[in-house]
Design a protein that fits this description.
alpha/beta; seven-stranded mixed sheet; three-stranded mixed sheet; 10 strands; globular
Length: 271
C-alpha cells in the first residue's frame, strides 16, 4: 500500500524553530516526511532522524532555496511511489490533526487566504514584477492562493513542481534599478514564487484543481484570516467549528496565538 508524504525545507533555521512542526505532525501522522536541510546542519539532521524523517542535503543557502526547492523535491520523487503528498512550509506551521485525514475534492488542492491579489501589496508586487502589469490585472480579483501549503496526488504534485520549475526559469522577478546598478539582491524578491504559484493555480494549469476557502477549509493561513477562534482545547477552529488540520503563519498574529501555541508546546513537551 502506498504511503503519503510530507515535503518541506528547513534551510537557515535552528532546530528550536522546527520542533513545533515536527512534534505536532508526528503526534498525528506516522508516514513519510522528507526535509531539505543544509549540508552542514548536523544538529537538525540528528533531531529529525529521531522522528524518522528522510533527509536531503543541499549547499543552497536560505536566500535561494525558496525558488530552488522545487527541483530538489522533484528529483527526490524520481523512482518513488506515494499516495498523496503535502508540500508545505516548516518554521511557521503546526498541525492539529493528520493533514491527510480529509476528503479532499481535487487531485490537487490549493488553500486560499482572505484577500484578493489586487488588494495585497506584496502579491501584487511579486506578480507585476514577475509577469507584468497585464497578468496582475487579469489576476487582481482572484483570492490569494498560499504557496506554503499545497496537497494532492503524486502525479498532480509532480506536475505542480514541474510547472514551478518552468515558470521560475522563464519568468524572473525584475529587480529594481538601484539593486541592478549595485549588483545586490532585491529583498523584494523574497516570496516571489507566490507569483508563479498563483499564476499556475488561477490559470488552471493542472487538471482537477480545487480551491478551499480560508474561513471554512482544512487549512488556516493566518496572515489575512478574518476569523480567529479557538475551542476549549486551544485548537483553532473554522466557521463550522471544526479544528483546522494545518495552521500556517501563526507567528503573524502572535498576540492572538501565543496562548494556544504555548499550550501546544506544553502538551508536546517542547522547551
Amino acid at each position: 500500500m502506498r504511503k503519503n508524504l510530507v515535503l518541506t525545507a528547513a534551510i537557515g533555521f535552528h532546530i528550536s524553530q522546527l520542533k513545533l512542526f515536527i512534534k505536532s505532525l508526528r503526534k498525528y501522522y506516522k508516514e513519510e516526511i522528507c526535509f531539505i536541510i543544509g549540508a552542514n546542519d548536523k544538529e537538525i539532521e540528528r533531531e529529525l532522524k529521531k522522528y524518522d524523517c528522510e533527509i536531503v542535503k543541499t549547499n543552497i543557502d536560505k536566500r535561494d532555496i525558496q525558488l530552488k526547492r522545487y527541483k530538489i523535491f522533484l528529483d527526490f520523487l524520481k523512482g518513488k511511489e506515494f499516495n498523496d503528498i503535502l508540500f508545505c512550509d516548516s518554521r511557521d506551521v503546526y498541525f492539529q490533526s493528520n493533514p491527510f485525514n480529509y476528503s479532499y475534492k481535487g487531485s490537487i488542492n490549493f488553500f486560499l487566504e482572505d484577500k484578493k491579489i489586487g488588494d495585497c501589496k506584496f502579491n501584487s508586487d511579486w506578480i507585476s514584477k514577475t509577469y507584468g502589469v497585464q497578468v496582475l490585472n487579469d489576476l487582481s480579483e482572484k483570492i490569494i492562493s498560499c504557496g506554503g501549503t499545497v496537497l494532492g496526488s503524486q502525479n498532480s504534485i509532480k506536475k505542480f513542481l514541474t510547472l514551478m520549475i518552468d515558470e521560475t526559469s522563464k519568468h524572473k522577478f525584475k529587480k529594481r534599478l538601484k539593486y541592478i546598478l549595485t549588483f545586490r539582491r532585491d529583498k523584494g524578491s523574497r516570496g516571489s514564487d507566490q507569483a508563479h504559484g498563483n499564476f499556475i493555480a488561477h490559470n488552471n494549469l493542472i487538471n482537477d484543481s480545487y480551491f478551499y476557502s480560508n474561513i471554512n477549509g482544512p487549512v488556516a493561513t493566518v496572515y489575512h484570516l478574518k476569523r480567529i477562534k479557538f475551542n476549549e482545547n486551544y485548537q483553532l477552529i473554522n466557521s463550522s467549528n471544526q479544528p483546522y488540520l494545518i495552521v500556517h503563519q501563526y507567528d503573524k498574529k502572535w498576540d492572538a496565538f501565543s496562548k494556544a501555541v504555548n499550550f501546544l508546546k506544553y502538551k508536546l513537551k517542547i522547551d
